[in-house]
Design brief:
Blueprint (H helix, E strand, L loop, with lengths): L5 E5 L6 H12 L2 E4 L6 H8 L6 H20 L4 E4 L5 H9 L6 E2 L8 E2 L4 E7 L2 H10 L10 H7 L9 E5 L4 H12 L1
Parallel strand pairs: 1-3, 1-6, 2-3, 6-7
Antiparallel strand pairs: 4-5
Helix pairs in contact: 1-7, 3-4
Length: about 180
């Protein structure tokens, strides 16, 4: 795989995606996006009410994020995205779009090429107990701690052939960042 144009920092709510993503983007000089900032108000209201999101809620949001990643990477801008991306299909949408991605017009004599984002997936993993404790201390977020189990229930950790690394949330922030930087070098 070519060098990634984007890094996806993924995991359940409370795993540290936003903190790690923002710090990583700062270290690399890349643009940072927090996927939570792009949830439509309907999704936020559902979560505030303690209702887990379903695929119908998530897919348009993920398609929008794919379009943002594709736009930035196409202009040479490297990106770090903090996003739960709990299922493989969600990560596939971030890479290729909803239907495998829009096709770029082929030059005469050349095959069509999928417009996809080269992505390194960083999975921040931890136990329910550790992450639940973090969520209980977090203030002012629309995702209530009561929904954490629903995220663990649907979590599909990355696996081959995905381009990924898994890092324990038990490590401190500087160790997590150093591990990611080492992989990117």
């Amino acid at each position: 795989m070519a060098a990634p144009g984007a890094v996806l920092v993924m995991g359940v709510s409370g795993s540290g995606k936003s903190t790690v993503g923002a710090q990583l983007a700062c270290e690399l000089g890349w643009k940072f996006y927090d996927a939570d900032d792009y949830h439509p108000e309907e999704n936020r209201m559902k979560m505030r009410k303690g209702i887990p999101l379903n695929d119908q809620d998530r897919i348009p949001w993920l398609c929008n994020l794919h379009d943002i990643l594709l736009r930035d990477v196409a202009t040479g801008q490297h990106v770090v995205l903090a996003c739960s991306a709990l299922k493989k299909v969600y990560r596939d949408i971030l890479i290729r779009g909803k239907d495998g991605g829009p096709r770029k017009c082929a030059e005469p004599g050349k095959e069509d090429k999928l417009a996809e984002v080269k992505l390194l997936v960083v999975h921040l993993s931890g136990s329910f107990e550790v992450i639940s404790g973090r969520l209980l201390r977090r203030k002012g977020h629309f995702m209530p701690p009561e929904l954490l189990q629903s995220q663990f229930d649907i979590l599909e950790p990355p696996s081959a052939p995905e381009n990924f690394i898994q890092i324990s949330v038990d490590k401190d922030l500087s160790e997590i960042i150093a591990t990611i930087l080492k992989v990117l070098k």
